[in-house]
Amino acid sequence: MLNFIKGVKQLMANGASNMDLAFPKDAYQKVGSKSVCVGHEPCPSCGSTDNLARYDDGHAFCFSVDCNHYERGDGSAPDNGAKLSTRDSFFKGQYHDLSKRKISAKTCRKFSYSIGEYQGVRAHIANFIREGQVVGQKLRLKNKDFRTLGDCSGLWGKHLWSTGKKIVITEGEIDALSVAESQNCKWPVVSIPNGVGSATKAVAKDLEWLLGFEEIILMFDMDSQGQSAAGKVAELLPPGRCKIATTARKDANASLIEVGGSSIVDSIWRARVHRPDGIVAGEDTWDLVNCPMTASDHEYPWRGLNEKTLGARKGEIVTFCAGTGAGKSTAVKEIASYFLSKGETVGYVALEESVRQAAIDFMSIHANKMLHLEGNNLDEKYFRDVWESVFATNRLYLYDHWGSMDSNILSNRIRYLNRSCGVDWIVLDHLSIMVSGVESGDERRLIDNIMTQLRSLAEELNIGMFIVSHLKRPQQGKGHEDGRQISLADLRGSGSIAQLSDFVIGLERNQQEDGETIVRVLKARYKGSSTGLAGGLYYDTGTGRLRECKYTEGAF
To answer: Packing angle between helix 443-461 and helix 407-421, nearest 10 degrees?
Structure first.
């Protein structure tokens, strides 16, 4: 009860009469009519122990000066909006120069931004005014401790302006005052009321009024949160009407203090029309193109393929395809192993073999012998040395998964490999098995989705991808296992594999003969004229390695 009485007395001391206490309209009617206070309770909003008065009809009201929580008797949602109903109920302050902020008392007076006292503590008071009356106050205490009284919705400073050529919207009241100071208070500027979290809501509330201005300039903080909020607010406004300003320092006030008001004026005039995500003006591409051009980020281990492709590049997808047993997996492991030997970091996603088998295969390539055939004849120290040479560098990551998997899970794993492990090259072996166990949807549609995600990832993360894809079984003639020449139409599952790959490389081999594997480039986006024969590879049965060899067209 004591706290309750103190709360009422404090309101009275600040200029409120009995009739000016901050009741919501329906609460005031209840209290002024036949309802009778039956007790006092803790307030769920401010935490006071007894300032919440409960009445015999069920409604309740908190008399804490900075709370005024209200509950309706019928249990419906409370109206805790305009907590103070008259001008005399709000705190009063005086106008001062904000010296540290380089803001004059003149500017503060214009915007009704004063300094007063709140519960014995110095407070900055920003008044929200409608129709000449204060309807809300935002109080700024030490350490950016904010309190709101009354209705602080909508744009702060709106009451000063009607329509005009341009208006600036800032992220906070101090920034709005800084913009006004730099323009001698002559040009419209307002602020969102409660930080970037309420930006879109505040602008939406006053959207019709804002559209009375020819240009709407957003001058939010230069951090990621501020710029992200600016982009979201811009989407509410008609195309071409909204501009986003870039300040010389982290915000408008910092720019005023450190550089001067002229920098803010320059920021307003240099503000650029907002463009939705994905749209880039030609004039903004200089930084993209003005960089050293390189034919490739890395070479392949085989000369013939390098001559046709000009090497491998990050941001590209290279698809390898072949018939069963033609050496697709062996080829991509050779490439991955070669990249490792050059100091690259590789992620290997094999969905049709165990991590143990993949690890031994990489060790075999390094050792130049098929370790899995050596059995117990291997010297333990030698075996350990080979293992350390491949894995102790911590540049090869294997993914332990068998069979089909959701494309979103794969995308998340690739993002992790890139961002957390530093992986720049991904090998996926193979594409078709990803959808083999999925019951819903047809294979074509599922592969379309997977390829679209992989394409986006390659560009988003700037990583190179090597994908293994299977071929369709021919309707007539000899099969691919018999050395049949491969075309793009032979890719199994979806046309998106060829469409979204930068290179498609076919491996042709007749399993019935002890011959070489033909390497054929079927698609080359980087150098369109470089399709065709790219040499041959010979499988060394003694070492399990693929060796490059010369090949003459028409051997099969």
So the answer is: 20
